[in-house]
Amino acid sequence: MSFSSNVKSELAHHFGEARHCQISEIAALLNMCGDYVPLAQNFCVKIHTENVTVARKCFTLLKKTFNIECEIQVRRNQQLNKKRAYTLLLDGAEDAVQKALLATGLMTKEKQVALGAQIDPLVVSSVCCKRAYIRGAFLAAGSVSDPEKTYHLEFVANQQSYAQQLIALINSFDMDAKMVKRKEQFVVYLKEGEQIVDLLNIMGAHVALMEMENVRIIKDMRNNVNRKVNCETANLNKTIAASVKQLEDIQLLQQTVGFDTLPKALEEIAQARMAFPEASLKELGEMMDPPVGKSGVNHRLRKISEMAENLREGMVRSDDQ
After folding, report:
1. Which residues touch 226 (CB under 8 Å, ≥6 apart)?
2. Check whether domain 3-204 has CATH 3.30.1490.20, yes or no
């Protein structure tokens, strides 16, 4: 199973204790994967999902909360690798179905039904109900990427106004959810690993939360090690490049003016650098008599470099003449 499937499986077994929280979760499920089908005498509401655990939870919530017995239809989607699709039918003019739609804010007193259009403020008036609603929305139309690969959690909505309301609901928990249009749908998403962990906690997916946190810790450690290795490699490359340049300057002086013309301090450091080309500045300084600090060694080598550059400029001018 994918990480996203594991999250949904965990959330499918999470039931709010209070009836108002169960109503909030049902409202999200109906809003995001429900269809209203008007009939001549009554009406029919269908809940569509391809996840059997989500279908089972819808069935259980409706039974426990409103005592509604749903008919479940199962079919295979020939275009999606014969994956099963589940449809729960809330059928007819039963008072229980109408009460459920009224309680979830999806039916007006005039019996006008609107699914996927808005979030009734009364349904998410308390913090626990907001958590339940977001949990239901994720079960209905959410997904989360494998944290080993990338950090991305999203909800897919059919209407922009509804997506904006969902963003406001999620961001009421100090999140930074954003929206993007994808074809004819509107995607509400989070891309920060820390915020995804927080949202898993809000929805009640604590096992998945711990799994993701473990992955994040390992990835952070790996990234820190890589950064340190890269930094040390860069410093080593700089040291090697500087050493090569110093040796070139010293060899030029030796071949042209000779070490005898150099001040004793410069001759001493030049001899040491030629004898120990891989030594650090600190190590070169400790070879001096008396010992010299890193800044002192660097100053002497810089003087040698200046002398070599002057020699090169003189050679260029001679060639030009």
Report:
1. none
2. no
